[in-house]
Amino acid sequence: MGTTQLESVPEPKYWHLKTVLSEALDSEFTVGEILPNERDLAARFGVARATLRQALEQLELEGRLQRRRGVGTTVAPPRMGVAVGTGRQVWPSTGDDAWQPVDCALAAPPAAVATALESARDQAVHIVRRSRVSHGQPVAAELLYIPSTSVPDLSAIDAPSEAARARAVLRELQRLELQGQDSAVELGSARADDARELDRLPGAPVLVVTTRFFAEGRTAALSVATYRADTCRLTFTASGGVEIHHGPQQQAS
Amino acid sequence: MGTTQLESVPEPKYWHLKTVLSEALDSEFTVGEILPNERDLAARFGVARATLRQALEQLELEGRLQRRRGVGTTVAPPRMGVAVGTGRQVWPSTGDDAWQPVDCALAAPPAAVATALESARDQAVHIVRRSRVSHGQPVAAELLYIPSTSVPDLSAIDAPSEAARARAVLRELQRLELQGQDSAVELGSARADDARELDRLPGAPVLVVTTRFFAEGRTAALSVATYRADTCRLTFTASGGVEIHHGPQQQAS
DNA sequence: AAGTGGTCTAGACCACGCA
DNA sequence: GCGTGGTCTAGACCACTTG
């Protein structure tokens, strides 16, 4: 008469809670609607607030919820598709105006960047900061590292503003013939400055896209772009410009 | 003489802790080395275990640490680069043997998949499960959805095993002329079955790569691949086969 | 001022890997 | 059986937004 273990693997509470909430979001809530506060929700489900929060964190990670301190928890819209790779390779910010130059500095790059650029560690590079807005909200912050050798004709530029200097550097860069590019995507957490620009808290999950631009037989520029992981789906369109249509969610049961 | 607020924005403890630990990892630890257990670490830094864990979670998210229940916390090797997009588009598993077929079923697809395939909801599709191994450890689990119309000649196949049937379906698929493909990357959390295959706990952060394959003027196949976000950096090589060199090291040993 | 989510604590017990 | 990380609790206080 041992204790018959019908549930050999008891599901964690927060996991079950996440499932229940997820189904409730699909059926009983609409995008933008605010949920009851965490203390009420925890009481309603009979768990500690920390446990409830563990479930909410997961749902926020999956882009289902959006939480803002002092405001509340709201149902997030489906992730927006953001194009980060095109079939025809282009220099940064050639055609589309999705990226907005913020400022521009001339400084020594981090060690990792210097390695990728195959340049000396103490060789100063142009660092252009840009921010990307989509559907009215910030989705990415970028640091563009451009060795001085890639844009030699910058001695006689007028600089009415930081942004203007950034645009001048980009204009010069586009005179080179782009031979190729490649990108890498990895998970990261937002640094303090990126977080501020993305309207998130430091440490928020982000997708880091590192892109190398090749010209004249070497790496002519390096872009490190930080995308909000909760609101963005990065699209790499190889052929047409078609969009992937998503149901309520991607991962199915 | 009011309380002079020199630190107008007090940094959260776990954030500071993460920074300290991160620097310690760089200078005082080697890859594979095991850290002191959480209770000792928490005591050493004078914080509660929950706070210490918050810092460790972030470091694990960034791929700096690896934690395993019953074992301990170890210093993780640099993320491995995993190629997920090539310049020349290829059918799944054409050249490389990185993907291993696991099994194959014929069933109705989830609603989201049916939408992407532009097929009827109740139209059964082949569902091929594959797993990808790199450097000796599992990095991705995939579900490949293939409408029956894409592989018509499957009535007379012999099926000595599940994996063999999967290979037969893939072989048939490759007879079609691939016209294009596009991919999307987004953050997700591992479902229970994926987690098992990836040797992670359910809910672990993953990078979900959704790829559509076009042939004969329609979507001929849809792949949903789930990559370990902690160990993988997804590379999209547009031109040459060059690898991005990152920080101190490129790949694990 | 009130209400929200974010941080933090000091415990407890559980599931797992290993010797 | 022991030590590990994983889960969970019931509180407390803080930072932020809004009326």
What is the compact description of this entry?
Chains A, B: Residues 11-78 form the HTH gntR-type domain. The structure is a homodimer of 253-residue chains. With 253 residues, chain A is of the alpha+beta class.
- How much helix is in the residues of chain A? 10-25%
Count of DSSP-assigned helices of chain A: 6
Largest sheet of chain A: 6 strands, antiparallel
Shape of chain A: elongated
Rg from Cα of chain A: 23 Å
Main sheet of chain A: which strands, in order across? 4-5-6-9-8-7
List unreliable stretches of 5+ residues of chain A.
1-7, 240-253
What's the domain count of chain A? 2
What is the level 1 CATH name of the largest domain in chain A?
A: Alpha Beta
CATH level 3 topology of the largest domain in chain A: Chorismate lyase
CATH-level-2 architecture of the largest domain in chain A: 3-Layer(aba) Sandwich
Number of strands of chain A: 10
- First and last CA, distance of chain A: 36 Å
